[in-house]
Every structure is written in C-alpha cells, then in structure tokens.
C-alpha cells in the first residue's frame, strides 16, 4: 500500500508539473511547441499543494472527517493567509474564502460562489482514494466532506469519481474497472457521468490518436475558463484508458489535450500511479519532484509528496 | 388593469436594461468589429499610460444612434420569448442562428445541435446558474404561465429557480400590484438552503435594515456580491438584488431601478429584473415618459431580426392572448 500511495502522489505531482506549461493551449499549439510533451520543465501548481493539504486533514481526522472540520481548517490555515495576491487559487477557492469570511458554513460555502463545478476538488481527491484502498464508496463519502466546503453539484461528483478511481486502483483493479468504480459513485443523471461515457465512447470509436474527437465529445466551446470538473475528469480518465494504465503513456496523453492540462495530468498521474506503484513513475519525473514551494497554499510550503504518501500509508 | 401592468413589466425591464452601463457595450455590437477592437486598444492604452480617462463605446465613422440610451440584450430576449411563447421551447431555441447571447444560451444551443436535449442542455452547461432564463421568465410571469420548461433549455438549479422566482413575482405583481406579495411569491419558490434562496433572504434583510433602495446599495454589495467571479449575471445575485430593491422602493420603479444601476458588478441585468417587478407593480402609466420613449424600441444587438420592433406592441400580443 505504501508503494501504491507513493506512486499515486508522485504521479499526481509529475502530471501537475508536466501539464503546467500546456494549460489553456490548444492540442495543435501543444504539438507545434513540443511534438509530444514528455519532459517536466518547471514546478507543480495548486493541484499538488491542495492534495498535500487534503492529506493533512485525513491524517488528522481519519474517517471521522466532517465538512465542519474542513471549514475550520480553512479558517485556521487558509483564510488568514489568503491576502492579496492569493496566487494559484481558482475562483472556487477564492469564492470559498470570501464565503467563509462572510460567516457562511458548509454546504452554503460551496454553493454561494458560481464555480461549484470547479475541478478544484477532483485535483486534490487522490489522497482520499489512497486512504480507502478497495473501498470506492468510502473514498467518495470522505472526499465529499472536503468538497462540501468549496464545491457543489458537479464539482463534488468530479471529486467523488476521482477518489473512487484511486481507491479501486490502490486495490489493483484494471483500467476499465477503475473507470467503472468512478462511475459507480456518481449519479448516472449527472454531467460528469455523461461526459465520462462520452469520452470512453469517443476513445473506443477513434482510437488514442483522436485528441480532437475527445474535445468534440466533452469540451465546452463557449466558455473561457477550463477548470470544469465534468470536462477535466472525463479527459483524465480517458487519458488513463488511452495509456492503458501506464503512468507515462497516460500522463503524456492527458497533457496533450490542453485545457486544464495540469489538472488533467495530475488526475491521470494519480490514478495510474496508484495502479503501478512508485516504480511505475518514470525516474526522470520522480527526480524532478521536490518539496512544494507553498506558492498557492503557504501552509504546505516545504512538504514533499513522498512524505505525505508515507503518512497516509501509515494509517492503513 | 392587468394589461397595463403587463405592459409595465415589459417596459420596466427595458428601462432597467437601458439604465445599466453594459447596455452601451451590448449596443456597440451594432457597429463594425474594428470599432470594438479600437476600444480594446484604448483600454490597453489607458492601462499602459496610467490615464484614468477610460474609453467608452464610441461611433467613429459610424452612425451614433445605436449608442444613444436604449435597451439591449435583456429586452430583446424578453421580446423573443413573448413572440415564441406558444412554441415547444427546444424547437424554438433550435431554430436560432446568428444570435448573441449569454454563455448559458450559447452552450445550450451548442448542446441542442449535438443532440443533447433539455434538461441536460441547460444542466451540462458551465453557466447553468446565470439569469438568462430569469429574464425570459418575465414573459411567463406576465402571461401567468410556468417558466420551467423554457428555463430548463438553457439553465439548471439556481438558474431555473431564478426563473421560477421572477415568474412568480411578476405574476403576483401583475395580479395585485403589491410588491410585498410579489416578493412573498418569489420567496415561496426559493428554498432557503440554496444559494439563491439564502441570498434572497439576506438581501431583503439588508435592504429592510437600510430602509431605502439607495441607502441599501453598500449593504447589498457586502451581503450578496463576493467580487470573485468574472461574470455579473448569476441568478443567485441578480434576482435577490431585484427583489430587495423593488421591495425597498415600495414597488416604485423610479426609486428601485437607479439603485440597482449603482451596483456596477450586477448592472447588466439586476436593473432590468428590478424594473420588471417594479414596472409590473406600478403599471405602464407609472413609468416616466422620457424613459418610455427611449426604451421601447429594440436595437437588434443580440437578435438582429428584432431591430426596430416596438416592445410594447409585443407585450400587447401577450395581453390579447390572455384576453
């Protein structure tokens, strides 16, 4: 379990760092600049830092974690340091900080801002899956406690899907079963479920070269922000399938899709890393992952994902 | 009398639409694209040179008429709704081409074209929460009809609740002319545990404490707006502001609408929604003549085929349908 936990969070950090320069670029522009983007150029972003923060909540509260505990942790560790500029924060985190400052409590803190569907929960959902190996239902229940503070609706569904996928991968499930586990914990009548199915169908029909077809299947055209959970989760799970669970193949395919490329890479890397373990993450990528800087979340500055993974695995 | 109040709802929405500063931006869509490119370049110039003289929409080598004070997107979408109200909704939307619309509507049209039907067309939609359906719901409220089927084409959750609340408020205002009853009717369809339901009650408390619409402006800014997100058309913000200001003004359009226009972050649609409720309460006769003359003729900046149409004549077709 410790090996899978380390693989999962290393994969997450590597996907985050690899995808960062490709965020918001079109697949054509990514091909023009890199051909295939395979080498990490710089540091990771909010995905890794928020995942470390989420893991710290699990270490502290375990299965008893509630949304009130999470809100309290935000009030204590995020809100006081969220002075301008709050770098690397999405609308959902910034909106949540303002809602907490206004005295609201979850679930209203996650409902009061418009980005309830943000992929901010999905990007940090992996630790919940690590914490519940082989139990996708419990992983989904736990990540929802975190999500109720800053997300709603499809944002929570996206987090549940990723936590469940990681939980299944931690127990050695194959790629198709991992995606089934993700679908099993979200309503069939949800945007996220429909998008995951649309992405899988597109992949089956068009093969792994069909990046544009995946875009046609799930990408929203008339919206300038790309951090939509139904989109990022569907693209990340499609990348995991396209790479047949291999970390490098899944993550490089994921970041070739552009859009919220760092988050797509982080989710694909976390799920594939949980499936393949630490040795599944290319050594050159693992070597590029150092302690996080705390640029997005000062409270986690100096933490390393491998230490976080070990702490989570200790409780298993 | 209800005919006068239906006209009042339509005219009030158009006056509010015209009052908000974004109306000039929307109406400038009638000019050549290069004039808006110049506008963006002047914005960049102001930023670079640190001059506080901000550019406004202008008519260089263009007719000036589109930039005179007048209605823009919301009045046109209300008119389109009234004209198509008897048509199956997905079918009516599916026939739209070459339009400008909110993100919710643009995405819904894309969804419909891909074969994604309502309610998924409004739900699998990044702006499911916006107030496009709430604006259209003024027509449904005026006609005493349920706006849900129409709303679900483009919106979901708070976006649909906003439409139900606006239809309920306008229907009650048309029936009784009493703003207090209109607000109660809206609250009855807004569950308190939703963002729009929570905000509506918070906004009403803030405005009641302030005692007057203009006095309520800073309190509403603090209570309802978080200044985080980049679009100012969230139903959970605009509908509560409209309810609170219409009530604080005792249903008087000339007091409610200017206060809504003071809330710059929601001045795109909050004044229009405020004007629809207050206009329905006071009726057409209570709307200042000068504003009526300016606001009743549609520009065609979003729905080109409506250019030059008279909104009050369109409102009257709805009245005849009821009679």
TrEMBL record, chain A:
Mg(2+) binds at residues 45-47, 260, 262-263. Pfam families: ADP_ribosyl_GH. The keyword Ribonucleoprotein does not apply. GO terms for molecular function: hydrolase activity; metal ion binding. The keyword Magnesium applies. Coiled coil: none annotated. InterPro entries: ADP-ribosylglycohydrolase, Ribosyl_crysJ1, Ribosyl_crysJ1_sf. Keywords: Hydrolase, Magnesium, Metal-binding. Its cofactor is Mg(2+). Binds 2 magnesium ions per subunit. This is ADP-ribosylglycohydrolase. The lineage of its organism: Bacteria, Bacillati, Actinomycetota, Actinomycetes, Streptosporangiales.
From TrEMBL, chain B:
Its cofactor is Mg(2+). One of its GO terms (molecular function) is metal ion binding. Binds 2 magnesium ions per subunit. The keyword Magnesium applies. It holds the Pfam family ADP_ribosyl_GH. The keyword Metal-binding applies. Mg(2+) binds at residues 268-269. Keywords: Hydrolase, Magnesium, Metal-binding. InterPro entries: Ribosyl_crysJ1, Ribosyl_crysJ1_sf. This is ADP-ribosylglycohydrolase. It comes from Nonomuraea maritima.
